[in-house]
Specification:
The mean pLDDT is 87. The chain is built from ten helices and three strands, in the order ααβαβαβαααααα. Helix 7 packs across helix 9. By secondary structure, it is mostly helical.
Amino acid sequence: MRQGLRLILADHFKKATFGEARNAQEALNRIWKEKWDIVLLDVTMPGRSGLEVLREIRRSRPKLPVLVFSMHPEDQFAVRILKAGAAGYLTKESPAEELVGAIQKVVAGGRYISPALAERMASYLNVDVKQAPHERLTDREFLILRAIASGKPVGQIAKEFSLSVSTVSTYRTRILEKMHLKNNAELMHYAMRKGLVD
């Protein structure tokens, strides 16, 4: 995927220098040590999640624009990602021309959202629109909700997020309370119905 992306971008940005990272920590190390004009970031990556990496970039390099390029549909992550400080959000199904245009806009200091996402965000301005239960969760709670809904055991979730098993259980309880759900089965059913899991 990274190689294909690099070929597309090299064709449009002839004088650009490109860098790649295989995981979250490698990405952060490169961002801290080298000067970049833009970061193209995935939500799902080995190590920490792209959402956590985005927050880290915002803290350490607040002026560095981040364009999130993800396999996840816009309605799952885009608003949360933009609130976290990304300059734009694009799905991997987007045509190459849209990606190139989004990069140009973001590097020039703008923000990029697709027309479909712009329409969705405009609907939030309607006072009658009721917020979905999962949209009330914090970013960490949302990521743990997705992990639980994917059927991962608590021990595995704890390891992935560098948390203790009891902390994950506390998050689970808080998620169930906030969403007015009784158990993992209801949580999984909700997540599948809303398309929050792959």
